[in-house]
Design goal:
The complex is a heterodimer of chains A (about 375) and B (about 130). Chain A is an alpha+beta fold. Chain A is built from eight helices and 20 strands. A six-stranded mixed beta sheet of chain A has the order 11-12-13-10-4-14, sandwiched between helices. A six-stranded antiparallel β-barrel of chain A has the order 15-18-17-16-19-20. Chain A is globular and about 65 Å long. By secondary structure, chain B is an alpha+beta fold. Chain B has one domain: Beta Barrel (OB fold (Dihydrolipoamide Acetyltransferase, E2P)), CATH 2.40.50.100. In chain B, the strands form two sheets. Chain B has a six-stranded antiparallel beta sheet. A three-stranded antiparallel beta sheet of chain B has the order 4-6-7. In chain B, a hairpin with a 2-residue loop joins strand 2 and strand 3. Classes of the chains: A alpha+beta (about 375), B alpha+beta (about 130).
Chain lengths: ~375, ~130
Protein backbone atom coordinates (compact mmCIF):
# COMPACT_ATOMS: atom_id res chain seq x y z
CA UNK A 1 0.00 0.00 0.00
CA UNK A 2 2.90 2.33 0.74
CA UNK A 3 3.80 2.50 -2.92
CA UNK A 4 0.43 3.85 -4.01
CA UNK A 5 0.51 7.55 -4.87
CA UNK A 6 -1.25 9.87 -2.46
CA UNK A 7 -4.67 11.09 -3.53
CA UNK A 8 -5.74 14.70 -3.25
CA UNK A 9 -9.27 15.58 -2.11
CA UNK A 10 -10.00 15.99 -5.84
CA UNK A 11 -8.47 12.82 -7.32
CA UNK A 12 -11.88 11.14 -7.46
CA UNK A 13 -13.40 14.20 -9.15
CA UNK A 14 -10.69 14.13 -11.82
CA UNK A 15 -11.15 10.40 -12.43
CA UNK A 16 -14.94 10.74 -12.67
CA UNK A 17 -14.48 13.60 -15.18
CA UNK A 18 -12.32 11.45 -17.46
CA UNK A 19 -9.06 13.28 -16.83
CA UNK A 20 -5.88 11.43 -17.74
CA UNK A 21 -4.15 10.64 -14.45
CA UNK A 22 -0.50 10.05 -13.60
CA UNK A 23 1.79 9.94 -10.62
CA UNK A 24 3.66 13.17 -9.98
CA UNK A 25 6.01 13.54 -7.02
CA UNK A 26 4.16 10.78 -5.18
CA UNK A 27 0.70 12.20 -5.94
CA UNK A 28 -2.11 10.90 -8.16
CA UNK A 29 -2.74 13.94 -10.34
CA UNK A 30 -4.43 14.83 -13.64
CA UNK A 31 -1.91 15.39 -16.43
CA UNK A 32 -4.63 16.65 -18.75
CA UNK A 33 -8.36 16.97 -19.22
CA UNK A 34 -9.23 18.00 -22.78
CA UNK A 35 -5.63 18.32 -23.95
CA UNK A 36 -2.50 20.20 -22.94
CA UNK A 37 -2.61 22.62 -25.89
CA UNK A 38 -6.30 23.50 -25.41
CA UNK A 39 -5.81 23.94 -21.67
CA UNK A 40 -2.72 26.08 -22.19
CA UNK A 41 -4.57 28.36 -24.60
CA UNK A 42 -7.58 28.59 -22.29
CA UNK A 43 -5.36 29.96 -19.52
CA UNK A 44 -3.69 32.45 -21.88
CA UNK A 45 -6.97 33.69 -23.35
CA UNK A 46 -9.71 32.98 -20.80
CA UNK A 47 -9.35 30.91 -17.63
CA UNK A 48 -8.25 27.52 -16.36
CA UNK A 49 -8.67 25.69 -13.07
CA UNK A 50 -5.95 23.47 -11.58
CA UNK A 51 -5.88 21.16 -8.59
CA UNK A 52 -2.89 22.21 -6.46
CA UNK A 53 -3.94 20.29 -3.36
CA UNK A 54 -0.69 18.36 -3.48
CA UNK A 55 1.14 21.51 -2.39
CA UNK A 56 1.93 21.86 1.30
CA UNK A 57 0.83 24.37 3.91
CA UNK A 58 2.95 25.15 6.95
CA UNK A 59 1.89 27.55 9.69
CA UNK A 60 4.45 29.51 11.66
CA UNK A 61 3.44 31.50 14.71
CA UNK A 62 4.80 32.98 17.91
CA UNK A 63 6.47 36.21 18.93
CA UNK A 64 9.87 35.23 17.50
CA UNK A 65 8.48 34.16 14.13
CA UNK A 66 9.47 37.24 12.14
CA UNK A 67 13.14 37.19 13.13
CA UNK A 68 13.33 33.39 12.83
CA UNK A 69 11.74 33.31 9.35
CA UNK A 70 14.18 35.97 8.20
CA UNK A 71 17.04 33.71 9.31
CA UNK A 72 15.52 30.68 7.54
CA UNK A 73 14.46 32.32 4.24
CA UNK A 74 16.11 34.60 1.67
CA UNK A 75 13.44 37.30 1.27
CA UNK A 76 12.59 39.81 4.01
CA UNK A 77 9.33 39.07 5.83
CA UNK A 78 9.51 42.48 7.50
CA UNK A 79 8.29 43.89 4.18
CA UNK A 80 4.99 42.03 4.57
CA UNK A 81 1.91 43.66 5.97
CA UNK A 82 -1.15 41.67 7.04
CA UNK A 83 -2.61 39.85 4.04
CA UNK A 84 0.52 40.19 1.93
CA UNK A 85 2.71 37.49 0.44
CA UNK A 86 6.15 37.14 -1.13
CA UNK A 87 8.08 34.56 -3.09
CA UNK A 88 11.09 33.33 -1.13
CA UNK A 89 13.65 30.52 -0.94
CA UNK A 90 14.72 28.01 1.67
CA UNK A 91 18.45 27.35 1.31
CA UNK A 92 20.83 24.77 2.70
CA UNK A 93 24.04 25.75 4.53
CA UNK A 94 25.90 25.67 1.18
CA UNK A 95 23.56 28.24 -0.34
CA UNK A 96 21.76 25.73 -2.58
CA UNK A 97 18.00 25.63 -2.92
CA UNK A 98 15.99 23.24 -0.76
CA UNK A 99 12.66 24.68 -1.83
CA UNK A 100 10.98 27.75 -3.25
CA UNK A 101 7.76 28.88 -1.62
CA UNK A 102 5.34 31.71 -1.03
CA UNK A 103 4.96 33.08 2.49
CA UNK A 104 1.91 35.10 3.51
CA UNK A 105 1.56 37.13 6.66
CA UNK A 106 -1.94 36.49 7.94
CA UNK A 107 -1.38 38.87 10.82
CA UNK A 108 1.52 39.78 13.13
CA UNK A 109 3.26 36.62 14.33
CA UNK A 110 1.17 34.38 12.08
CA UNK A 111 2.48 33.16 8.72
CA UNK A 112 1.12 30.78 6.08
CA UNK A 113 3.75 29.04 3.92
CA UNK A 114 2.85 27.26 0.67
CA UNK A 115 5.59 24.79 -0.28
CA UNK A 116 6.19 22.27 -3.08
CA UNK A 117 4.39 18.93 -2.85
CA UNK A 118 7.48 16.76 -2.97
CA UNK A 119 9.23 18.86 -0.30
CA UNK A 120 6.57 19.08 2.42
CA UNK A 121 8.20 16.59 4.77
CA UNK A 122 11.77 17.73 4.05
CA UNK A 123 10.93 21.40 4.58
CA UNK A 124 9.05 20.63 7.76
CA UNK A 125 11.88 18.53 9.22
CA UNK A 126 14.49 21.13 8.23
CA UNK A 127 12.55 23.94 9.90
CA UNK A 128 11.51 21.94 12.94
CA UNK A 129 15.08 20.97 13.73
CA UNK A 130 16.01 24.67 13.79
CA UNK A 131 13.23 25.97 16.00
CA UNK A 132 14.49 28.32 18.68
CA UNK A 133 12.60 30.71 20.93
CA UNK A 134 8.86 31.31 21.08
CA UNK A 135 7.71 29.58 17.94
CA UNK A 136 5.10 27.18 16.70
CA UNK A 137 5.44 25.25 13.44
CA UNK A 138 2.52 23.15 12.22
CA UNK A 139 2.22 21.08 9.06
CA UNK A 140 -1.40 21.53 7.93
CA UNK A 141 -0.89 20.11 4.44
CA UNK A 142 -3.48 17.36 4.80
CA UNK A 143 -6.14 19.76 6.03
CA UNK A 144 -6.00 22.12 3.07
CA UNK A 145 -7.01 21.71 -0.54
CA UNK A 146 -5.73 24.14 -3.16
CA UNK A 147 -7.26 25.28 -6.46
CA UNK A 148 -5.46 27.59 -8.87
CA UNK A 149 -7.79 29.73 -10.98
CA UNK A 150 -5.63 31.34 -13.65
CA UNK A 151 -6.14 33.47 -16.73
CA UNK A 152 -7.25 36.96 -17.84
CA UNK A 153 -10.87 36.15 -16.96
CA UNK A 154 -10.05 34.71 -13.53
CA UNK A 155 -11.16 37.85 -11.72
CA UNK A 156 -14.45 37.87 -13.65
CA UNK A 157 -15.07 34.28 -12.59
CA UNK A 158 -14.49 35.12 -8.94
CA UNK A 159 -16.67 38.23 -9.08
CA UNK A 160 -19.49 36.13 -10.49
CA UNK A 161 -18.95 33.48 -7.81
CA UNK A 162 -18.49 35.76 -4.80
CA UNK A 163 -20.42 38.87 -5.78
CA UNK A 164 -19.09 42.35 -6.40
CA UNK A 165 -19.09 43.31 -2.72
CA UNK A 166 -16.07 41.08 -2.08
CA UNK A 167 -12.89 43.06 -2.66
CA UNK A 168 -10.45 40.74 -4.39
CA UNK A 169 -6.84 40.82 -3.18
CA UNK A 170 -4.17 42.73 -5.11
CA UNK A 171 -1.15 40.94 -6.65
CA UNK A 172 0.50 38.71 -3.99
CA UNK A 173 -2.22 39.62 -1.52
CA UNK A 174 -4.19 37.18 0.60
CA UNK A 175 -7.87 37.45 1.49
CA UNK A 176 -9.40 35.39 4.26
CA UNK A 177 -13.03 34.84 3.42
CA UNK A 178 -15.35 33.68 6.20
CA UNK A 179 -17.72 31.23 4.53
CA UNK A 180 -19.79 28.30 5.77
CA UNK A 181 -17.72 25.09 6.18
CA UNK A 182 -14.54 26.88 7.15
CA UNK A 183 -12.47 29.80 5.99
CA UNK A 184 -11.24 30.16 2.45
CA UNK A 185 -7.90 31.84 1.79
CA UNK A 186 -7.70 33.49 -1.62
CA UNK A 187 -4.25 34.58 -2.79
CA UNK A 188 -3.63 36.55 -5.96
CA UNK A 189 -0.70 34.41 -7.04
CA UNK A 190 0.01 31.75 -9.61
CA UNK A 191 2.46 29.78 -11.66
CA UNK A 192 1.27 30.54 -15.18
CA UNK A 193 2.31 34.12 -16.00
CA UNK A 194 -1.33 35.23 -16.06
CA UNK A 195 -3.43 37.08 -13.55
CA UNK A 196 -5.06 34.60 -11.21
CA UNK A 197 -5.78 33.24 -7.79
CA UNK A 198 -4.76 30.39 -5.57
CA UNK A 199 -7.68 29.29 -3.47
CA UNK A 200 -7.05 27.35 -0.28
CA UNK A 201 -9.97 25.71 1.49
CA UNK A 202 -10.61 22.87 3.95
CA UNK A 203 -9.96 19.53 2.21
CA UNK A 204 -13.55 18.35 2.64
CA UNK A 205 -14.87 21.37 0.71
CA UNK A 206 -12.53 20.95 -2.28
CA UNK A 207 -15.01 19.22 -4.59
CA UNK A 208 -17.72 21.75 -3.73
CA UNK A 209 -15.51 24.72 -4.66
CA UNK A 210 -14.03 22.97 -7.70
CA UNK A 211 -17.53 22.56 -9.14
CA UNK A 212 -18.70 26.03 -8.09
CA UNK A 213 -15.71 27.70 -9.75
CA UNK A 214 -16.17 25.67 -12.95
CA UNK A 215 -19.87 26.57 -13.00
CA UNK A 216 -19.11 30.26 -12.48
CA UNK A 217 -16.46 30.08 -15.20
CA UNK A 218 -18.67 28.36 -17.75
CA UNK A 219 -19.70 31.55 -19.56
CA UNK A 220 -16.04 32.65 -19.63
CA UNK A 221 -15.03 29.36 -21.31
CA UNK A 222 -13.01 28.10 -18.37
CA UNK A 223 -11.34 24.69 -18.74
CA UNK A 224 -10.25 22.31 -16.00
CA UNK A 225 -6.51 21.81 -16.49
CA UNK A 226 -3.85 19.27 -15.62
CA UNK A 227 -0.18 19.36 -14.74
CA UNK A 228 0.85 19.18 -18.41
CA UNK A 229 -0.45 22.67 -19.14
CA UNK A 230 0.80 23.88 -15.76
CA UNK A 231 4.32 22.94 -16.88
CA UNK A 232 4.17 24.58 -20.34
CA UNK A 233 2.62 27.73 -18.84
CA UNK A 234 5.23 28.14 -16.12
CA UNK A 235 8.03 27.43 -18.56
CA UNK A 236 6.85 30.19 -20.91
CA UNK A 237 6.49 32.50 -17.92
CA UNK A 238 10.08 31.75 -16.92
CA UNK A 239 9.24 30.29 -13.50
CA UNK A 240 11.77 27.69 -12.34
CA UNK A 241 10.58 24.28 -11.16
CA UNK A 242 12.23 23.04 -7.99
CA UNK A 243 13.94 19.69 -8.52
CA UNK A 244 14.56 20.56 -12.19
CA UNK A 245 15.68 24.18 -12.55
CA UNK A 246 16.41 24.67 -8.86
CA UNK A 247 18.48 22.21 -6.87
CA UNK A 248 20.54 21.84 -3.68
CA UNK A 249 23.70 22.68 -5.67
CA UNK A 250 22.40 25.75 -7.50
CA UNK A 251 22.13 29.08 -5.71
CA UNK A 252 19.26 31.53 -6.17
CA UNK A 253 21.70 34.02 -7.70
CA UNK A 254 22.69 31.44 -10.33
CA UNK A 255 18.98 30.86 -10.92
CA UNK A 256 18.38 34.56 -11.57
CA UNK A 257 16.33 35.01 -8.41
CA UNK A 258 18.41 37.75 -6.79
CA UNK A 259 15.39 40.02 -6.33
CA UNK A 260 14.07 37.48 -3.80
CA UNK A 261 17.30 37.54 -1.77
CA UNK A 262 17.66 40.44 0.68
CA UNK A 263 21.15 41.22 1.89
CA UNK A 264 20.16 44.12 4.16
CA UNK A 265 18.48 41.99 6.81
CA UNK A 266 21.25 40.21 8.69
CA UNK A 267 22.26 36.59 8.57
CA UNK A 268 20.27 33.81 6.93
CA UNK A 269 21.10 30.20 6.11
CA UNK A 270 23.20 29.95 2.96
CA UNK A 271 24.25 33.59 3.01
CA UNK A 272 28.03 32.98 2.98
CA UNK A 273 28.05 31.63 -0.57
CA UNK A 274 25.66 34.30 -1.80
CA UNK A 275 27.87 37.08 -0.38
CA UNK A 276 30.79 35.61 -2.29
CA UNK A 277 28.76 35.27 -5.49
CA UNK A 278 27.52 38.81 -5.13
CA UNK A 279 31.01 40.25 -4.89
CA UNK A 280 32.74 37.95 -7.39
CA UNK A 281 29.86 37.23 -9.75
CA UNK A 282 28.32 33.83 -10.48
CA UNK A 283 30.10 31.37 -12.76
CA UNK A 284 26.92 30.07 -14.35
CA UNK A 285 23.41 31.35 -14.80
CA UNK A 286 20.02 29.90 -15.57
CA UNK A 287 18.95 31.16 -18.99
CA UNK A 288 16.05 30.65 -21.33
CA UNK A 289 16.71 28.94 -24.66
CA UNK A 290 14.57 29.51 -27.73
CA UNK A 291 14.81 26.81 -30.39
CA UNK A 292 14.59 27.48 -34.11
CA UNK A 293 11.37 26.71 -35.96
CA UNK A 294 10.48 23.11 -36.82
CA UNK A 295 13.00 21.58 -34.45
CA UNK A 296 12.03 18.82 -32.02
CA UNK A 297 10.85 20.02 -28.62
CA UNK A 298 13.69 20.19 -26.07
CA UNK A 299 13.34 18.14 -22.89
CA UNK A 300 15.24 17.98 -19.60
CA UNK A 301 18.88 16.77 -19.67
CA UNK A 302 19.59 17.44 -23.34
CA UNK A 303 23.23 18.53 -23.85
CA UNK A 304 23.87 22.17 -24.83
CA UNK A 305 26.84 23.18 -27.02
CA UNK A 306 28.50 26.51 -27.72
CA UNK A 307 31.08 26.84 -30.53
CA UNK A 308 31.15 23.06 -30.75
CA UNK A 309 31.93 22.45 -27.07
CA UNK A 310 29.57 21.04 -24.43
CA UNK A 311 28.67 23.83 -21.99
CA UNK A 312 25.69 22.49 -20.03
CA UNK A 313 22.39 20.70 -20.26
CA UNK A 314 18.73 21.66 -20.29
CA UNK A 315 16.96 21.52 -16.94
CA UNK A 316 13.43 21.91 -18.39
CA UNK A 317 12.04 22.04 -21.87
CA UNK A 318 8.93 21.75 -23.99
CA UNK A 319 7.18 23.08 -27.02
CA UNK A 320 5.92 26.58 -26.25
CA UNK A 321 2.29 26.52 -27.40
CA UNK A 322 2.23 30.33 -27.54
CA UNK A 323 5.47 30.79 -29.49
CA UNK A 324 5.14 27.63 -31.60
CA UNK A 325 8.80 26.77 -30.98
CA UNK A 326 10.70 24.76 -28.43
CA UNK A 327 11.79 26.53 -25.26
CA UNK A 328 14.06 25.36 -22.47
CA UNK A 329 16.07 26.44 -19.46
CA UNK A 330 19.71 25.63 -18.88
CA UNK A 331 22.59 26.69 -16.65
CA UNK A 332 25.31 28.14 -18.90
CA UNK A 333 28.68 29.75 -18.14
CA UNK A 334 28.08 33.42 -17.34
CA UNK A 335 29.91 34.68 -20.45
CA UNK A 336 27.34 32.88 -22.66
CA UNK A 337 24.21 34.25 -21.06
CA UNK A 338 23.73 37.41 -23.12
CA UNK A 339 20.38 37.19 -24.93
CA UNK A 340 20.94 36.34 -28.58
CA UNK A 341 23.98 34.14 -27.93
CA UNK A 342 23.77 31.22 -30.37
CA UNK A 343 24.00 27.70 -28.93
CA UNK A 344 23.02 24.21 -30.03
CA UNK A 345 20.85 21.64 -28.29
CA UNK A 346 21.56 17.98 -28.98
CA UNK A 347 18.46 15.89 -29.54
CA UNK A 348 18.85 12.17 -30.31
CA UNK A 349 22.39 12.69 -31.50
CA UNK A 350 21.70 15.68 -33.75
CA UNK A 351 22.40 19.30 -32.86
CA UNK A 352 19.74 21.94 -33.43
CA UNK A 353 20.21 25.73 -33.28
CA UNK A 354 18.88 27.75 -30.35
CA UNK A 355 19.50 31.20 -28.93
CA UNK A 356 19.81 32.41 -25.38
CA UNK A 357 16.62 34.31 -24.60
CA UNK A 358 15.65 36.67 -21.85
CA UNK A 359 13.35 35.08 -19.28
CA UNK A 360 10.42 35.12 -19.29
CA UNK A 361 9.92 34.16 -22.91
CA UNK A 362 6.23 35.00 -22.58
CA UNK A 363 4.91 38.12 -20.87
CA UNK A 364 1.20 38.71 -20.61
CA UNK A 365 -0.19 41.72 -22.44
CA UNK A 366 -0.62 44.72 -20.17
CA UNK A 367 -4.23 45.75 -19.74
CA UNK A 368 -5.88 48.66 -17.98
CA UNK A 369 -7.38 46.23 -15.50
CA UNK A 370 -4.08 44.56 -14.67
CA UNK A 371 -3.22 44.72 -10.99
CA UNK B 1 -11.53 3.44 -30.75
CA UNK B 2 -11.63 3.37 -34.50
CA UNK B 3 -10.09 0.17 -35.95
CA UNK B 4 -10.60 0.11 -39.75
CA UNK B 5 -11.31 -3.34 -41.11
CA UNK B 6 -9.06 -3.10 -44.19
CA UNK B 7 -5.72 -2.77 -42.32
CA UNK B 8 -3.18 -4.94 -40.52
CA UNK B 9 -1.89 -3.99 -37.06
CA UNK B 10 1.30 -4.31 -35.02
CA UNK B 11 1.20 -5.06 -31.31
CA UNK B 12 3.01 -1.71 -30.82
CA UNK B 13 0.01 0.16 -32.31
CA UNK B 14 1.13 0.88 -35.88
CA UNK B 15 -1.15 0.08 -38.82
CA UNK B 16 -0.13 -1.18 -42.28
CA UNK B 17 -2.06 -0.91 -45.54
CA UNK B 18 -0.73 -3.38 -48.13
CA UNK B 19 -0.92 -2.59 -51.84
CA UNK B 20 0.93 -5.21 -53.93
CA UNK B 21 4.60 -4.96 -52.87
CA UNK B 22 4.09 -1.52 -51.25
CA UNK B 23 2.76 -0.74 -47.79
CA UNK B 24 1.64 2.47 -46.12
CA UNK B 25 2.27 2.81 -42.37
CA UNK B 26 0.85 5.01 -39.62
CA UNK B 27 -0.19 4.88 -35.99
CA UNK B 28 -3.59 3.76 -34.76
CA UNK B 29 -6.38 5.85 -33.33
CA UNK B 30 -5.61 4.30 -29.95
CA UNK B 31 -1.94 5.29 -30.26
CA UNK B 32 -2.71 8.92 -31.14
CA UNK B 33 -5.14 9.09 -28.24
CA UNK B 34 -2.50 7.79 -25.84
CA UNK B 35 0.18 10.13 -27.20
CA UNK B 36 -2.11 13.19 -26.87
CA UNK B 37 -1.35 16.36 -28.91
CA UNK B 38 1.38 15.47 -31.42
CA UNK B 39 3.67 18.47 -31.94
CA UNK B 40 6.60 17.00 -33.86
CA UNK B 41 7.26 14.05 -36.17
CA UNK B 42 10.80 13.01 -36.95
CA UNK B 43 10.25 11.30 -40.30
CA UNK B 44 12.40 8.39 -41.46
CA UNK B 45 14.89 8.93 -44.27
CA UNK B 46 13.83 7.67 -47.70
CA UNK B 47 15.98 4.70 -48.67
CA UNK B 48 16.38 3.43 -45.10
CA UNK B 49 16.20 -0.36 -44.85
CA UNK B 50 14.29 -1.68 -41.84
CA UNK B 51 13.39 -5.00 -40.28
CA UNK B 52 10.00 -5.74 -38.83
CA UNK B 53 9.83 -4.38 -35.29
CA UNK B 54 12.78 -2.04 -35.78
CA UNK B 55 12.56 1.53 -34.47
CA UNK B 56 12.17 3.76 -37.52
CA UNK B 57 11.06 7.23 -36.40
CA UNK B 58 9.95 9.36 -33.46
CA UNK B 59 6.68 11.09 -32.68
CA UNK B 60 6.64 13.77 -29.99
CA UNK B 61 3.70 15.04 -27.97
CA UNK B 62 3.91 18.02 -25.64
CA UNK B 63 4.88 15.69 -22.82
CA UNK B 64 7.07 12.97 -24.31
CA UNK B 65 8.90 11.46 -27.27
CA UNK B 66 7.73 8.03 -28.47
CA UNK B 67 9.45 5.58 -30.80
CA UNK B 68 7.57 4.24 -33.83
CA UNK B 69 8.41 0.74 -35.10
CA UNK B 70 8.17 -0.57 -38.63
CA UNK B 71 5.51 -3.28 -38.82
CA UNK B 72 7.30 -5.01 -41.71
CA UNK B 73 10.69 -5.42 -43.38
CA UNK B 74 11.44 -3.24 -46.36
CA UNK B 75 12.89 0.00 -47.64
CA UNK B 76 11.36 3.42 -46.92
CA UNK B 77 10.14 4.68 -50.30
CA UNK B 78 8.19 7.82 -49.34
CA UNK B 79 7.44 9.94 -46.28
CA UNK B 80 4.49 12.19 -45.49
CA UNK B 81 6.05 15.65 -45.62
CA UNK B 82 2.70 17.23 -44.67
CA UNK B 83 3.40 16.10 -41.09
CA UNK B 84 6.31 18.54 -40.85
CA UNK B 85 3.94 21.49 -41.21
CA UNK B 86 0.99 19.87 -39.48
CA UNK B 87 1.97 17.10 -37.05
CA UNK B 88 -1.54 17.21 -35.54
CA UNK B 89 -2.74 15.25 -38.62
CA UNK B 90 -1.69 12.23 -36.59
CA UNK B 91 -4.39 13.12 -34.07
CA UNK B 92 -7.12 14.28 -36.41
CA UNK B 93 -6.81 11.72 -39.22
CA UNK B 94 -4.44 8.91 -38.17
CA UNK B 95 -5.53 6.44 -40.90
CA UNK B 96 -5.51 8.75 -43.93
CA UNK B 97 -3.87 12.20 -44.00
CA UNK B 98 -1.81 11.19 -40.97
CA UNK B 99 0.06 8.33 -42.68
CA UNK B 100 3.78 8.47 -41.83
CA UNK B 101 5.77 6.52 -44.41
CA UNK B 102 5.57 4.00 -47.25
CA UNK B 103 7.63 0.85 -47.54
CA UNK B 104 8.82 -1.09 -50.52
CA UNK B 105 8.25 -4.45 -48.87
CA UNK B 106 11.23 -6.80 -48.76
CA UNK B 107 10.73 -9.97 -50.77
CA UNK B 108 11.02 -11.98 -47.57
CA UNK B 109 8.62 -9.63 -45.69
CA UNK B 110 6.30 -11.73 -43.55
CA UNK B 111 3.06 -10.03 -42.61
CA UNK B 112 1.63 -13.10 -40.91
CA UNK B 113 2.81 -11.87 -37.50
CA UNK B 114 0.63 -8.77 -37.81
CA UNK B 115 -2.83 -8.71 -36.30
CA UNK B 116 -6.14 -8.66 -38.05
CA UNK B 117 -8.58 -5.85 -37.11
CA UNK B 118 -10.43 -8.38 -34.93
CA UNK B 119 -7.23 -9.44 -33.16
CA UNK B 120 -6.15 -5.84 -32.64
CA UNK B 121 -9.56 -4.88 -31.25
CA UNK B 122 -9.21 -7.83 -28.91
CA UNK B 123 -5.78 -6.52 -27.79
CA UNK B 124 -7.28 -3.08 -27.09
CA UNK B 125 -10.12 -4.57 -25.09
CA UNK B 126 -7.60 -5.87 -22.54
CA UNK B 127 -5.99 -2.47 -21.89
Amino acid sequence: MEDLPKRTPLSAVHEASGARMMEFGGWWMPVQYKGILDEHRAVRSAAGLFDISHMGQLLVGGKDSEAWLNAMLTNDVRHLGDGQGQYTLLLNEQGGVIDDLIIYRIEANSYFLVVNASMIEADFQWLQSRIAGHLTLVNQSDQWAGLALQGPRAQDVLRLLLGNQVELPVRNGLLSLPVPNGPVLIARTGYTGEDGFEWFCPANTAALWWNKILDAGHSFEILPCGLGARDTLRLEAGFPLNGSDLSPTHSPLEAGLSSFVKFDKGDFIGRVRLDTERSEGVKRKLVGLLMGEKTPPPRPHYPVFHSGSPVGETTSGSLSPTLGSGIAMAYLPSDMTTPGTPVEVEIRGRRFPATVAKRPMYRRPKTAAAV
Amino acid sequence: MNVPTDLLYAISHEWLRKNADQATVGITDHAQHELTDVVYVELPVVGTKVDAGQQICVVESVKAASDIYSPAAGTVSEVNAALIQDPALLNTDPYNKGWIFKLQLATEADLSALKSPEQYSEQLSHL
